[in-house]
Structures are given as C-alpha cells and as structure tokens.
Amino acid sequence: MSAATRPPRVGVLALQGDVREHLAAVAAAGATPIGVRRRDELDAVDGLIIPGGESTTMSRLLGVFDLYEPLRARLAEGMPAYGSCAGMIMLASDILDTRPDARHLDALDITVRRNAFGRQVESFETDLEVDGITGGTPMRAVFIRAPWVEGAGEGVQVLARVPDGPAQGRIVAVRQGDVLATSFHPEVTGDRRVHQYFVDMVAAKIE
Ligand code: GLN
C-alpha cells in the first residue's frame, strides 16, 4: 500500500451543534475540514464527524435536509465516522430515553442512554484513559448532558470507562470497525488526540 497523495477530507455534519470546534480540530490534525449540510458535500468526504448538540433536533434536521438516507447508505458502505455526545447517540443502534419519533443511524451496535448522568451531574469533567489514544497520559474529558453506553455488542471495543464517582465503570468511548464514539467533547479542550486518532483512521482507509 502506498501513502495517500492528499490529506483526508473529513466532514463535520453542520446542521446543529458545536461544528466550528470540530472543523478547527480536524484542520489541526492535518485533514481537510468540510462542513456537511448538503448531499454533494457528504459525497465529497472520506469520513464524517457528528458533533455534540441535541440528538432529537439533529434527527429532525437530517430529514429536513434530505441527508438521512444518504448518510445511512454511506455508513452502511463503511465510511469512517466519529460521533461525540449527541453524535454518539445518532450512531447507536438503540437509544433509551429518547422521543419515539427520533431516528438514528444504526452504525454502532450499542445501547445508549440519553442524559444518563442525571440532573445532579449534568456536566462534569474527569481525567480519562482512552485505550489506543492516551497511552498512559489521561485526557481531560468534558461531559455535557452526556449519554453513556449501557450495552455493547460483541464486535464493539470498549475504549474508556468513567474511572470514579457515581458513574464509575460506565462506558464512555467505543469503537466498532471504522466507527468511533465518545460521550465527551474532546473538541472543547484543545487536546487533539481523539481527532488525530480519527483522522489517522480515515487516512488509513484512503491509502
Ligand atoms: N443531551 C443531548 C442529546 O440528547 C446530547 C448533549 C450533547 O451533545 N452535549 O442529544
């Protein structure tokens, strides 16, 4: 295999949520960032990030922008994807505590619970070891009305669990094939390791 001759084109679904931070992180990780709002933009990317935001709103907007079926199709073909927080919810196969009409993308064999950490700890931060990404130097993980993974199928690698506190042991980062998801928001801390890991996944795919 020869090295790719161009930087990978990494899209950020730009319907809603913290799009700008992800675009900046993708650029810092050496990829070409592309905001994705239209079908032709989706067709142009090698991989896609689904940002944090609000999953039921994002679900509705995917329908409004005629992106739901095309995005499902690209994921079914094996396009690499990374979902953060609401993005993790969108990629899951099962969602607990959501609206009955919310649609999701079925790209990860996981059951997620929305807003799982409860009212007392809607937002919190912790230092997290993420398998294959942090290598002994934990990263600051910021959780904002985050989901956790309540069940994962056999093909799913668990990359991180909450180390302590009331949610100790809960799964908050997973990978299955070329699909990655975190409950937390690495785009807000300036730590680029999760984005670098994803950009490297996408680059490996286009080599
Ligand atoms: N609670 C949000 C949802 O259900 C996710 C929060 C986030 O992305 N920061 O979609």
Structural descriptors:
single chain, 207 residues, alpha/beta, 7-stranded mixed sheet, 3-stranded mixed sheet, 12 strands, binds glutamine, transferase, EC 3.5.1.2, lyase, hydrolase
Topology:
Elements: E1 9-13, H1 19-28, E2 32-36, H2 39-44, E3 47-50, H3 55-64, H4 68-76, E4 81-84, H5 86-91, E5 92-96, E6 108-113, E7 123-128, E8 139-144, E9 148-152, E10 157-161, E11 171-176, E12 179-182, H6 193-206
Parallel strand pairs: 1-2, 1-3, 3-4, 4-12, 5-6
Antiparallel strand pairs: 6-9, 7-8, 10-11, 11-12
Give a verbal description of the structure.
With 207 residues, this protein is of the alpha/beta class. Helices cover 27% and strands 29% of the residues. The protein has helices spanning 19-28, 39-44, 55-64, 68-76, 86-91, 193-206, and strands at residues 9-13, 32-36, 47-50, 81-84, 92-96, 108-113, 123-128, 139-144, 148-152, 157-161, 171-176, 179-182. The strands form three sheets. It has a seven-stranded mixed beta sheet with strand order 2-1-3-4-12-11-10. Strands 5-6-9 form a three-stranded mixed beta sheet. Helix 1 links the parallel strand 1 and strand 2. It is globular, with a radius of gyration of 16 Å. Belongs to the glutaminase PdxT/SNO family. InterPro entries: Class_I_gatase-like (IPR029062), PdxT/SNO (IPR002161), PdxT/SNO_CS (IPR021196). In the presence of PdxS, forms a dodecamer of heterodimers. Only shows activity in the heterodimer.
